[in-house]
Amino acid sequence: EEEEEEGEEEEEEEEGRRTHDGPRSLLDAPRCFQRPHGGAAASWGLRFGASAVQGWRAHMEDAHCAWLALPGLPPGWAFFAVLDGHGGARAALFGARHLPGHVFEALGTAPDEPEGVRGALRRAFLNADARLRALWPRGEPGGSTAVALLVSPRFLYLAHCGDSRAMLSRAGAVAFSTEDHRPLRPRERERIHNAGGTIRRRRLEGSLAVSRALGDFAYKEAPGRPPELQLVSAEPEVTALARQAEDEFMLLASDGVWDAMSGAALARLVASRLCLGLAPELLCAQLLDTCLCKGSLDNMTCVLVCFPGAPRPCEEAIRKELALDAALGRRVSELYSSAQEPPSLNTVFRTLASEDIPDLPPGGGLYCK
C-alpha cells in the first residue's frame, strides 16, 4: 500500500529562486504539527515509520513516499523516498507521487541484481525528470533533492541526488552514509565546468547549493549535452549494499535533520529509542521535535526503515528511561517551587543543561525531553 506525504496543499512558489541555505523568510513561530505514520510487513520483518514538520519555514516543500510491496515483484521488495523541494513544492510532490512508478517500470518483473537494478534506478530518476519537464514546458517548477531506498531480499539500494541523506546502522555503528552532491565535489565541479557553468560562494552560478536535483531546468539548458552532463543533473548516485543479519535500520531524511544532528548522533538516538519499544513512526516524530529544539530552521522529513536485526525493547533501558522522566519531573517541580515567580521554559532548560543528569538519551540529550 502506498503511503504518501500530502505536502499540505502548499505548492505555491515564492518569488525568486530559493537556495538551500541562503536568506529566506521565516515564521514568527515554528509550525510543529506532525502526522506520523508507519507500517509493517511482518512476513519479512520490515517495519517503517515516517513523519514531517514544516518548522520555521514559510512553506512546506518536503515530500515523501513509502511502499511495502512493489507491483509485479515477489514479497521482500519495498521502496521509500524523501524529497526536499526548493523554489516551491511542485518538484518534490511530483517526485513523491511519480518516482515510484518510474522505478517499478524500470525494474520490470525479473530485475537482475545488483547491476540491473542499479541501472533501473538511474533510468527511473532520469525518466521522472524528463516527465517533470514535459509537464511544465512554459514554467519553472523549481527543483527537489531526492534520496530513495529500494529494498530487495538480498540487497539495499540507495539512489540519491542532492543533499537529502541516508544512513545505515549495522551492528551498532554507522556502516554507510550517502555523500551530498555539492558543486565543489571534484566530479561535480568537473561536470559543471565542462557544461560552461561557474561556482561562486560555493554555489552553482552563485545561487544553487546542490549540483544534482530533479527539476531546476534553468540549469539544464547546455546545448548538445545529455541530461546527466548538464550543470544540474538528475542522475542519481546509486549504491548497492549486500544485506547482512546485523543490519539494524536505515534513516532517510531531508537536510534540515542533518543540519541539527550528526549521523553518529542520530544513529545512537534511534537505537536508544528502539530499545524502549517506541514505534518507528513515533520515533520519527520525537526525532524531528528534537531537531527543532536543537535549532533546525528548515522543513524536516524523516523515514525510518527497521530490519529484522533492529534493536529490540530492553527492560533495563525502559526502567532507566522511566527513572529519568521521574527525576526530571521532580527537578522541574523543585525549580518552580523555589522561584519567586514561575520560570520560563528556557530558564528551566538552561538550568537543567548545566547539571549532571545521568542516563539522558544518547545523541539527543536533554533536547529529547
Automatic annotation (TrEMBL):
InterPro entries per record: PP2C (IPR015655), PP2C_C (IPR012911), PP2C_C_sf (IPR036580), PPM-type-like_dom_sf (IPR036457), PPM-type_phosphatase-like_dom (IPR001932)
Reaction equations catalysed: O-phospho-L-threonyl-[protein] + H2O = L-threonyl-[protein] + phosphate
Family matches, as SMART domains: PP2Cc
Region Disordered, annotated ranges: 1-32
EC category name: hydrolase
Keywords on record: Hydrolase, Magnesium, Manganese, Metal-binding, Protein phosphatase
Listed EC numbers: 3.1.3.16
Family, similarity comment: Belongs to the PP2C family.
Protein name: protein-serine/threonine phosphatase
Biological source species: Puma concolor (Mountain lion)
